[in-house]
Design a protein that fits this description.
The chain is an alpha+beta fold. It contains 2 helices and 3 strands, in the order αβββα. The protein is elongated and about 60 Å long.
C-alpha cells in the first residue's frame, strides 16, 4: 500500500521534538500535516521524541491502519518505557565511546 510522504514524517518529528513529549493522535488526518499519498489509510498515530541529554536525534512515529483499533493511552505509555530504554542505551554507548577516547589520549 501507499505510505505517507517523507515530508509528513519530518513534520511529525518537528512537532514532537518541539513539544518535548510523546503524543497520541487519535486521527492523524485531522491534524494539519503534509500527508502525501496514502495517509488516508491510518486511524491513529504515536510519536515519540528521541532525545539524549540535549541532543535531538529525531522521532519514532508509529501509524496504525484503519482496519485496526486506534492506539490507546496504555500503548503510548508502554512505548514511552521502550523509548526510555533505547535512549539510555544510546547514551551509554556514547559514554563508552567518550571513555575510550579519554583512555587513548592518556596512553
Amino acid at each position: 500500500g501507499s505510505r505517507p510522504s517523507g515530508e509528513f514524517f519530518n513534520a511529525v518529528a518537528d512537532r514532537v521534538l518541539a513539544r518535548g513529549a510523546a503524543s497520541r493522535v487519535p486521527s492523524p488526518e485531522t491534524q494539519d500535516l503534509p500527508y502525501g499519498a496514502g495517509a488516508e489509510g491510518f486511524n491513529s498515530m504515536l510519536a515519540y521524541p528521541l532525545v539524549v541529554r540535549e541532543s535531538e536525534l529525531g522521532a519514532l512515529v508509529l501509524l496504525r491502519l484503519k482496519e485496526r483499533p486506534a492506539f490507546t493511552l496504555a500503548e503510548l505509555r508502554r512505548g514511552m518505557v521502550f523509548i526510555t530504554q533505547i535512549m539510555m542505551a544510546v547514551d551509554n554507548r556514547r559514554l563508552e565511546i567518550e571513555l575510550h577516547r579519554c583512555q587513548c589520549t592518556l596512553n
